[in-house]
Design brief:
By secondary structure, this protein is an alpha/beta fold. Helices cover 40% and strands 15% of the residues. The protein has an eight-stranded parallel beta barrel with strand order 1-2-3-4-5-6-7-8, surrounded by five helices. Bound molecules: phosphoenolpyruvate (PEP).
C-alpha cells in the first residue's frame, strides 16, 4: 500500500489583510517542525497569494487557492484562471467548497469543469464533498457523497487520479464547532476510497482524503489516526498559529 503523506491545509476564507496575511504565514513557517510528517498548505484569499508566496519562498510549505474558474483567460470579470494561480506559485486549488456551492451557485457540473482545468494547468485540486445536516438525518450521506464525487470527477482519467486530493467536509460540521466522530468520519472516508477504486482503479490507494469540519487541536489526533483520513482541511483554526501548529503536529 502506498504511503500517503498527510496534507494539512489552512483555508483562510475571506480573512486577512496583506499585513495580517504576511504575519500569519511567517508565524506558521517559523512554527512548523522541520522533520514533520505532514505536508502543509496555506490558502489565503486571492489578494494575499503573492504576499504569502513570498513569505513561503525557500520553505516546503505549499501555497493553495480557494477556487478557480475553468477558462484560461478572457472576458470573465472577477474570475481567476488556474494558469494565473500556477503563475503566482500555487500548488493546490480548493474546488467545490460547500460555501462556494451554497453562496456562489457551484454545482457538480461546474465543479467538474474547475477540477479538470486545475489539473490541466498542472495544479492539484482539493475536491470538497459532504452532506448537509438534513441529508444526514434523512440517511442520504452516502448517496450525496457518491453523487458529488462522481459528478466532480467527471471524465477524469485514472492516469491523473493520484494528482488529486479529496476533502470530506460534512456541511453541518463546518464552522459550527460540531465535528464528525472519528467513527462517522472513517466510515465515510472508507466509502469514498471504495468509490475512488471504482472510478479510478489502482491510483485510489494513493489519493489523500482529508477530513474538514471544526478540526481543532483537541480532536485532530484521533481523527488523523483513522486509517482512511489522510489530513485535514482546516478553516477557523487555521487563522491562529496557536491552534493550527498543534493540528499540524498531531499528524506526527
Ligand atoms: C472549511 O472551511 O473547510 C472548514 C472545515 O472550516 P472549519 O474548520 O472552520 O469548520
Amino acid at each position: 500500500m502506498p504511503e500517503r503523506r498527510p496534507l494539512i491545509a489552512g483555508n483562510w476564507k475571506m480573512h486577512k489583510t496583506l499585513p495580517e496575511a504576511r504575519t500569519l504565514a511567517r508565524d506558521i513557517r517559523q512554527g512548523v517542525a522541520p522533520g514533520r510528517r505532514a505536508e502543509v498548505a496555506l490558502a489565503p484569499p486571492y489578494t494575499a497569494l503573492a504576499a504569502v508566496a513570498a513569505e513561503l519562498a525557500g520553505s516546503d510549505l505549499r501555497l493553495a487557492a480557494q477556487d478557480a474558474f475553468w477558462e484560461k483567460q478572457g472576458a470573465y470579470t472577477g474570475a481567476i484562471s488556474p494558469a494565473m494561480l500556477a503563475d503566482v506559485g500555487c500548488r493546490y486549488v480548493i474546488v467545490g467548497h460547500s460555501e462556494r456551492r451554497r453562496h456562489f451557485g457551484d454545482t457538480d457540473e461546474t465543479v467538474s469543469r474547475k477540477l479538470t482545468a486545475v489539473i490541466a494547468a498542472g495544479l492539484i485540486p482539493i475536491l470538497c464533498i459532504g452532506e448537509t445536516q438534513a441529508e444526514r438525518e434523512a440517511d442520504q450521506t452516502l448517496q450525496v457523497v457518491r453523487r458529488q464525487l462522481e459528478g466532480g470527477l467527471g471524465t477524469l482519467k485514472p492516469a491523473t487520479g493520484a494528482a488529486l486530493v479529496i476533502a470530506y467536509e460534512p456541511v453541518w460540521a463546518i464552522g459550527t464547532g460540531l465535528t464528525a466522530t472519528p467513527e462517522q468520519a472513517q466510515t465515510v472516508h472508507h466509502f469514498i476510497r471504495s468509490l475512488l477504486r471504482e472510478f479510478l482503479g489502482a491510483p485510489a490507494e494513493a489519493i489523500r482524503i482529508q477530513y474538514g469540519g471544526s478540526v481543532t487541536p483537541d480532536n485532530a489526533a484521533i481523527l488523523l489516526a483513522q486509517p482512511d483520513i489522510d489530513g485535514a482541511l482546516v478553516g477557523g483554526a487555521s487563522l491562529k498559529p496557536e491552534l493550527f501548529l498543534p493540528i499540524i503536529a498531531a499528524a506526527g
